[in-house]
Design goal:
The structure is a homodimer of 396-residue chains. In chain A, strands 4-3-5-6-7-13 form a six-stranded parallel beta sheet, with helices on both faces. Chain A is elongated. The first copy, chain A, starts with 15 loop residues before the first strand and ends in a 5-residue tail after the last strand. In chain A, strand 10, helix 12 and strand 11 form a beta-alpha-beta unit. The first copy, chain A, is an alpha/beta fold and 396 residues long. Helix content of chain A is 39%, strand content 17%. Chain A is built from 15 helices and 14 strands. At the A-B interface, strand 2, helix 4, helix 5, helix 6 and strand 4 of A face strand 2, helix 4, helix 5, helix 6 and strand 4 of B. Strand 2 of chain A pairs antiparallel with strand 13 of chain B. The first copy, chain A, binds a DNA duplex (16 and 16 nucleotides) through helix 2 and helix 4.
DNA sequence: GTGAAAGCGCTAACAA
DNA sequence: TTGTTAGCGCTTTCAC
């Protein structure tokens, strides 16, 4: 076993009790909160050091040191085009010695670029935080932005007030563009964004636009994936196939429902029950289905979480999966799909890739040079739809 | 059922195939990736509009319109202290009419403040993304920062190269402070941060400092929580209590192990097996324990994910939980703890509150006014440790 | 190829 | 109370 630093006292360190000066009220989002007290360990420490750091060197300082003008230093720092080698070298050394780092604020002031992108996650519900979707998407975005030296400014919104704040921020010209997620029907965000006049790419097909607008978005092929799943169930010989929908104020849920209908046509309407992308919703819906259609022999759930709830209810009712009832989910969220009993057959979407693609699209749109490029196809992508794949495990 | 916008075509829209100009290589982090092709739906659209927006109005413009000086406008915009009411009103109206929004870059240039905080998540592994920990923490931070009008700049690091980039960014004076997570032993980040000389609060006790340094951090009472869990198992009459550790290069894992030892003393060393905070690690460790100590009657797992893996193996081996073997996890990650079979007894930590607290601490440290405040206690918190609570469900 | 000079939009002394 | 003025640190014409 590793050799590790440990509290040598052998006990939890000395504590002092401190009332929590909460800024916000409700923190408890998922259960009785722990006692509102904080254990503080103090020791001889000053405040988190507002260290009076020596003022950072400026272009001026570097220029002086290298014996050139500020303009020359600027040129070298920004790529060094049109500066003779020996000078470049001198400047480089000066930069090095002084530990010079350009002041971004000053730079932005003149260039009007920020090399920063806002990521807006409009999710008032707990759901985003209960699954890795969000994190994976972010990771993809982060990778792509980083590769292009852009920063990621995260804007999480929860209530109506937050919308105004986000609108102001976006309009404030802090960032070069925005990536927006989890839009719900009648979300005010799109309007705000349009008004802010800032280049934007959406994650998921926005519900308020059926191609009639010039919105750019990235989505999974929800409908196609759903079709594939349902076809698979039908191919298994199942005839009483049910669907537990997602939250129908999101297009992903609507599209999956459409895919289901593409295959099943006008099946028994009792076989389609509304869920909300959560395990609890899945349980509720599954019970309803078993109530009304005891002969159900397959279930296509709008996502894996929903499917996990459905599985639990099926087990409760003594139905064997997949023998009695076959079940398919959507997402292929590993921590869920692999841990269910039995492991879940599901439709995979490449979430991280979606994020990466959104960033790439936005960055491409931002690139001035591209605006005048290749005159052949004036058509830029409005919607990019990533393919899905059926992942077979044990549940269907 | 809701009335919803749908693709009226009844089918997935027309697609065009486009090769994916991937910037990064390996995207596949969790399985065979879907075919590297993208379905693009095009329509008559220009590039993501690099809209030549009319130049935003400046202070100057507002001043002209209101018939006052720039200074006065500035005063009004920044709180309006010391400006007579009628003028305030005139300026307000001008701001309104022109839709004026201050240019942040210009402001930062002179104030040297950015009202932005960097959140650094140093997690090369998949783990952070497989559980809601990260998202919850982020949410807490976001709330607190928002309440104080600060922006959240997210810095995700994955490889060694990323460290340099982050160091540069932090040193570049883009942000007023940093919040840092998921440090591992021998992580180069703390060094970089120290060199950047930027106020920082850590999430989780940093491994390289046993209170000998002036580091500020927020942590859960991992050790105390572990003790409570193990005591509970002992109270249940269990005598052969095993522990599956977390990744021991993180202090949270070490502290939980210490807590276990506080109660169990020098138990059979075979009962302590190293895990890695993942379900797979939990499975592996559980098998090993059953192999070497078939008489095991209780397991304290380093987190819920680990516990879920252990549960699966126990079931596989026909051990009943909790009758034959009682199991306790750590974290109380609802999507996991409530979905296991049986539902998991576990140690809850308030993750969102941790995030909120980190932000609060950092902001407090940044606040100039506080540096000269109350001379009574010069001691600022070095470590803030949040309490944990045992949540009883069915597994123990 | 290099330097001088003019701002980018704002805040903060200082005067009035 | 209000206005005037001098920069913050950088990029970018425009001369040389």
């Amino acid at each position: 076993m590793l050799n590790l630093p440990r509290n040598t006292t052998g006990r939890t360190p000395i504590f002092a009790l401190l009332p929590c000066p909460c800024v916000h009220g409700e923190s408890a989002l998922m259960a009785p909160p722990p006692p509102r007290a904080i254990l503080i360990r103090t020791h001889r420490t000053r405040s988190p050091e507002v260290t009076d750091t020596a003022p950072r060197p400026t272009l001026e300082a570097v220029a002086a040191r290298a014996g050139v003008s500020r303009a020359t230093v600027s040129r070298v720092v920004n790529g060094g085009d049109g500066v003779r080698e020996p000078l470049v070298e001198r400047v480089r050394r000066a930069v090095e010695e002084l530990g010079y780092v350009p002041n971004q604020a000053a730079r932005s002031l003149v260039t009007r670029r920020h090399d920063a992108i806002a990521v807006v996650v409009a999710e008032p519900e707990t759901r985003v935080f209960a699954d890795p979707f969000f994190a994976l998407q972010l990771r993809g975005i982060s990778k792509e932005l980083t590769a292009h030296d852009n920063q990621l400014v995260l804007l999480l919104t929860e209530g109506r007030d937050d919308h105004a704040r986000v609108g102001r921020y976006l309009a404030g010209g802090h960032v070069d563009g925005a990536l927006v997620f989890s839009l719900h029907l009648e979300d005010p965000l799109p309007g705000l964004i349009q008004r802010a006049g800032i280049p934007t790419v959406f994650g998921g097909r926005p519900g308020w636009s059926d191609g009639s607008q010039d919105v750019v978005y990235v989505d999974s092929d929800n409908r196609g994936g759903a079709r594939e799943a349902v076809r698979h169930l039908v191919g298994l010989g199942r005839t009483r196939v049910a669907h537990i929908t997602g939250a129908l104020d999101q297009t992903s849920a609507v599209d999956r429902l459409d895919g289901f209908r593409d295959v099943m046509g006008d099946a028994d309407p009792k076989l389609v029950v509304q869920g909300d992308f959560t395990p609890a919703g899945g349980e509720r819906a599954m019970r309803e289905i078993l109530d009304h259609c005891p002969d159900v022999d397959a279930v296509f759930a709008a996502n894996d979480l929903t499917a996990s709830g459905a599985l639990r209810v099926l087990r409760e009712h003594g139905r064997r999966v997949p023998e009695d009832v076959a079940v398919i989910g959507f997402d292929d969220m590993l921590p869920v799909a692999e841990q269910t009993d039995p492991p879940l057959t599901t439709v995979r979407q490449d979430i991280e890739e979606m994020g990466r693609l959104m960033a790439r699209l936005l960055l491409r749109g931002l690139d001035r040079s591209s605006s005048s490029s290749g005159g052949d196809a004036g058509a830029a992508p409005a919607g990019v739809v990533l393919p899905t794949t059926l992942v077979r495990r044990a549940s269907a």
